[in-house]
Write a structure and sequence with these properties.
Layout lengths: L4 H7 L4 E7 L4 E9 L5 E8 L4 H22 L4 E8 L6 H18 L3 E5 L5 H11 L14 H20 L8 E5 L5 H11 L2 E5 L3 H11 L2 E2 L12 E4 L18 E2 L11 H8 L3 E2 L2 H4 L2 H10 L5 H25 L3 H16 L8
Parallel strand pairs: 3-4, 3-5, 6-7, 6-9, 7-8, 9-10, 10-11
Antiparallel strand pairs: 1-2, 2-4
The protein binds phenylalanine.
Length: about 350
């Protein structure tokens, strides 16, 4: 059964989606605003081609919800939102540039209801352009492109450390094997940080040359994408697309910890329980991957001190440590502890739902 736009919208728990069709390229633009009680929505813009436009809409909705939890979880007063630009497979560079400009104009028409940063398929240069046209790019310094990827990687490293400590009693990377899936904007710098910390790397990417590039820089072994479920590792770090943890894959995992940067790693919340039942420690994705959002929202508010930015990102490690302990004490998945923490912030600081009162 194919799900239509109206079914998908009816089933969603978010506030609204602003939809536009770019006739010059055939691209669909979906700006999903999930929960704006904490403030105007902010989140990345993902650009990708999907089997059908409605799949882009579904992705935008799921990612927007992830941003609601992410901002609330780190105590930043932005609402949860995300944009997806569903592009045709054969979009050329020139057509893409025009599309980015028209997307920026679209954000102007929304007058700040959505502010954005990079996500899969968009670049810091795109954001500089979008910022110049619209003023609605988060975290630009003097209009210059900035890359949140290294901050996200730093947060993931702090999170993996906390997970190692909780699971194995020591935060030491020596002799620990980490499987990094996806050597992109976050996975690549993460591999560098892990190598520096003394971890043994297993690298896999659908584009094998990306894994090879990381191997040349940081060492480790390259694993073919279809062979990754056969690899024994202490940590599996998903750093690419979502939903890699599901009822089919969880029984096949050969790791003690899942801790990576991908958004929406679980196909559904029930998968958190499946991981727990297998004794695998799961670092909730929107907590461990919040480093870029944390750093860029702080930059947005005027923070320029690199040491302080890094310290804020490193707090992700201590937050996770607390969640792991709380969850272990309650005999539940860390996902629940993370959700409670985010809810507390939303309840304490969120205004009334739009339209209420
Ligand atoms: N794309 C980032 C994420 O998924 C969000 C982000 C928002 C990054 C704003 C930079 C600025 O977390």
């Amino acid at each position: 059964m194919t799900r239509g736009f109206l079914d998908v919208t009816e089933a969603w728990n978010g506030e609204s989606v602003v939809t536009a069709f770019d006739s010059a390229t055939g691209a669909w633009i979906f700006v999903a605003l999930h929960d704006t009680r904490l403030g105007p929505a902010a989140g990345g813009t993902r650009m990708a081609s999907y089997p059908a436009p409605v799949d882009g809409l579904i992705d935008a909705m799921r990612l927007a919800e992830g941003m609601t939890w992410k901002w609330a979880g780190v105590g930043v007063r932005f609402g949860g939102g995300k944009a997806v630009i569903a592009i045709p497979d054969d979009l050329g560079d020139e057509a893409r540039a025009g599309l980015v400009d028209r997307y920026a104009a679209h954000l102007v028409s929304l007058r700040g209801a959505f502010q954005t940063g990079v996500d899969m398929g968009t670049t810091p240069e795109d954001m500089a352009r979008i910022g110049a046209i619209s003023g609605y790019a988060v975290g630009l310094v003097d209009g210059k492109p900035g890359d949140p990827g290294p901050y996200t990687a730093r947060g993931v490293l702090a999170g993996i450390r906390a997970a190692l400590e909780h699971r194995f009693g020591e935060a030491n990377f020596g002799g620990r094997a980490v499987l990094v899936q996806g050597l992109g904007d976050v996975g690549f710098p993460l591999a560098g940080l892990l190598a520096e910390a003394g971890a043994t790397l297993h690298l896999t990417d659908l584009r094998e040359e990306a894994a090879r590039r990381a191997q040349t820089r940081f060492g480790g072994t390259v694993i073919p994408a279809d062979g990754m479920w056969e690899v024994d590792a202490d940590v599996y770090a998903p750093c690419a697309v979502g939903a890699t943890l599901n009822p089919d894959t969880i029984p096949r995992l050969r790791c003690g910890i899942v801790a990576g940067s991908a958004n929406n790693q679980l196909l559904s919340d029930a998968d958190a329980e499946r991981l727990r039942a297998r004794g695998i420690l799961y670092a909730p994705d929107y907590v461990i991957n919040a480093g870029g959002a944390v750093a860029f929202s702080a930059i947005h508010r005027g923070e320029r001190d690199e040491t302080r930015l890094r310290a804020r990102v490193d707090e992700i490690g201590s937050s996770l440590r607390e969640m792991f302990e709380e969850a272990a004490g309650a005999g539940e998945s860390p996902l629940h502890a993370a959700r409670r923490r985010a809810r507390r912030f939303l309840d304490a600081h969120g205004g009334p739902p739009p339209g209420a009162g």
